[in-house]
Specification:
Layout: E1 4-8, H1 16-24, E2 29-32, E3 41-45, E4 48-52, E5 65-68, H2 76-88, E6 98-101, H3 109-121, H4 135-143, H5 156-176, H6 184-198, E7 202-203, H7 205-214, E8 219-222, H8 248-251, E9 262-268, E10 271-273, H9 286-294, E11 307-309, E12 311-312, H10 313-322, E13 327-331, E14 341-350, E15 353-355, H11 362-367, E16 369-376, H12 393-406, E17 410-414, E18 422-424
Parallel strand pairs: 1-8, 1-9, 2-5, 2-8, 5-6, 6-7, 9-13, 12-14, 13-17
Antiparallel strand pairs: 3-4, 10-11, 14-15, 14-16, 17-18
Length: 431
């Protein structure tokens, strides 16, 4: 049976939630393999809207196992609140339907406090544009070998030792930022309290997944954010704090890379970005405003307005290579309805030279000017189309040109937030 990894191939917000939900109906297990609750997925099922942040998208599908992998950093208090919110919408969530890897690092309140204090203290031009939810500092503690992990909640002595090691690092940082020292006893009390709620979901996820794979289960790996926010291959330093590209699905869950059979890249028919950082095709004009309004471009988690611009084929070609994408799901094609002319970025001009990729040096990224190819738009509506025959000829040409420029075929085409408004070209789960 095929196992599929879903990754965002731009700066996130590409519509992964709908596609993961669409695919999850055919999967047996749905795994979240990286990121924190700074990411958000909006699912629309039979007119009902679910907004998920830490939970895998598969939780809204009955009879599926949802997994939070060790590549995630988890805020346990947020998770419990999210579980209650989703339960109130009629979704059953139990330790039989949701597992959390025992080696998953936790986001503590001190991480969010540090995150926000650093961002406030940052000078102009150095702000990252984080959500302030503690994701970055939690990953720092993981790499610094001072994280509190899910398994630590089960043993009081180990928990105290982990907290003390973390505070040796955090208290000096807080002093430098003008924050009061951490109340150790209050933090430990909060962790002991939440432990009773989290530990029933803890499991050896690596073992469970490998057993499921051997038994022939179909596993769907769900990423957060987008490949251009990858800590290594994104527009550094304006990136997230984890690896977003498809290879992380193996490390972030404990299943070998040979277990991945198909990588599906989610690509919006135009480009958006939230927060700071380079954005070569960004539009500060009526077209950009129109894309934002028609696409309802506001973040699921933060409500922040997204920056909008034309489709950047050079960047998507890059992310398809770094994630080994086999096929893309092109989303929000309907947002382009009504434009007389559409533009696609095919490369950049940098200091008189033509580049077919975005360089890593931030000062060079800032000097890159997009090279555009123009295409005829269409006046007909593509919203809700479920077959190629439902699409205007100009829309089909646009999709075909995108395929040519990024060097990757379209596997699925999404024409509205509704899960059934999807044109299937290639089945990622095909044996």
């Amino acid at each position: 049976m095929a196992n599929v990894v879903v990754v965002g191939a731009q700066w996130g917000d590409e519509g992964k939630g709908k596609i993961v939900d669409w695919l999850s109906e055919r999967a047996d297990v749905i795994c979240r393999f990286q990121g924190g609750h700074n990411a958000g997925h909006t699912l629309v099922i039979d007119g009902k809207v679910y907004k998920l942040h830490a939970l895998p998208s598969g939780v809204v599908r009955g009879g599926k196992l949802s997994v939070i992998g060790n590549g995630v950093v988890l805020d346990p208090w947020h998770l419990m609140n999210e579980i209650e919110t989703v339960r109130a919408q009629g979704v059953e969530i139990t330790p039989e339907t949701l597992m959390i890897a025992e080696n998953t690092p936790l986001i503590l309140p001190i991480h969010g406090e540090l995150d926000r204090a650093r961002e406030e203290a940052a000078s102009k031009g150095t702000k990252i544009g984080t959500t302030g939810r503690g994701i970055g500092p939690a990953y720092e503690d993981k790499v610094g070998r001072r994280a509190v992990r899910v398994a630590d909640l089960a043993d009081p002595a180990t928990l105290e030792a982990r907290v003390d090691r973390a505070l040796q690092h955090h208290d000096p940082l807080r002093r430098g930022l003008g924050i009061e020292p951490v109340d150790r006893d209050a933090l430990l009390a909060a962790l002991r309290d939440i432990a009773e709620k989290v530990l029933p979901y803890a499991a050896p996820v690596w073992k469970v997944l490998n057993e499921k794979r051997k038994a022939g289960s179909r596993i769907l790996f769900e990423g957060a954010q987008g490949a251009l926010l990858d800590i290594d291959f994104g527009t550094y330093p304006f990136v997230t704090s984890s690896n977003v590209i498809a290879g992380q699905a193996a490390t972030g869950t404990g299943i070998g890379p040979g277990s991945i059979d198909y990588v599906l890249g989610i690509v919006k028919a135009y480009t958006t970005r939230v927060g700071e950082g380079p954005f070569p095709t960004e539009l500060d004009d009526d077209d950009g405003q129109r894309l934002g309004e028609r696409g309802h471009e506001f973040g699921t988690t933060t409500g922040r307005k997204r920056r909008c611009g034309w489709f950047d084929a050079a960047l998507v070609r890059q992310t398809c290579a770094t994630s080994g994408v086999n096929g893309i799901s092109l989303t929000k094609l309907d947002v382009l309805d009504g434009f007389d002319t559409l533009k696609i970025c095919v490369g950049y001009e940098l200091d008189g030279k033509t580049m077919d990729y975005l360089p890593f040096a931030s000062e060079e990224q800032a000097r890159c000017t997009p090279i555009y190819e123009e295409m005829e738009g269409w006046s007909e509506s593509t919203e809700g189309a479920r077959s190629w025959a439902d699409l205007p000829g100009a829309a089909v040409k646009y999709v075909r040109r995108v395929e040519e420029l990024i060097g990757c075929p379209v596997a699925l085409l999404s024409t509205s937030p509704e899960r059934d408004d999807t044109i299937l070209v290639t089945d990622p789960f095909a044996d």
